[in-house]
Specification:
Helix content is about 70%, strand content about 0%. With about 180 residues, it is mainly α.
Length: about 180
């Protein structure tokens, strides 16, 4: 993989910002797409402060913008910030989608926010009828497994309307493997 010097990253980021600022005149809607890409570019590798700076510069945001930052917060162990942003998203009437809900649940799981994870899992259907997918149940298995709540893991797996996937079993083994014996 090609490694660019730090100065090139800065120039590339500057060019993307300028493209995002100037794209509304040439391609309506492209501006949001570019800004979202910039937020995601920072949030995915864990540069949440830079992602938040870009987020704060944006005039318009959508569920993709918020989901990228929520996921970034969760990966960095900042579950409270992820939940705060999710609540702001709802207050601004930006409707979450199933990907947003995976990011929220994953943030709760990575940060030990068991009650929050349960609450948002139960409220999913109230957001335009988001039906829990296998990924959402996997997040709950991870949440309960990391917390050592093996009875809740068993209950989740036996009651879900899906057949457990190999990835779900791997998630459970990883969560249980991290527990202190």
């Amino acid at each position: 993989m090609l490694q660019l010097p730090a100065s090139c990253h800065f120039v590339l980021e500057w060019q993307i910002c300028n493209m995002a600022k100037n794209s509304t005149a040439t391609l309506p809607g492209a501006s949001l797409l570019l800004w979202n890409a910039l937020v995601d570019m920072y949030a995915t590798p864990g540069k949440v402060l830079a992602a938040k700076r870009v987020f704060d510069l944006m005039r318009k945001r959508d569920e993709v913008t918020c989901t990228s930052l929520i996921a970034g917060y969760g990966m960095q162990g900042e579950g409270e910030a992820a939940i705060k942003l999710f609540k702001e998203m709802i207050n601004l009437q930006i409707k979450p989608d199933h990907v947003t809900m995976v990011a929220v649940q994953s943030s709760c799981s990575h940060c030990g926010l068991v009650i929050e994870g349960q609450v948002w899992f139960k409220k999913m259907r109230s957001f335009d009828g988001i039906i829990p997918h296998l990924e959402h149940f996997s997040c709950m298995v991870d949440l309960y497994g990391r917390a050592g709540l093996l009875n809740k893991v068993k209950e989740t797996i036996t009651r879900m309307p899906y057949k457990p996937s190999a990835a779900m079993w791997a998630t459970l083994l990883g969560a249980v493997g991290s527990m202190e014996v």
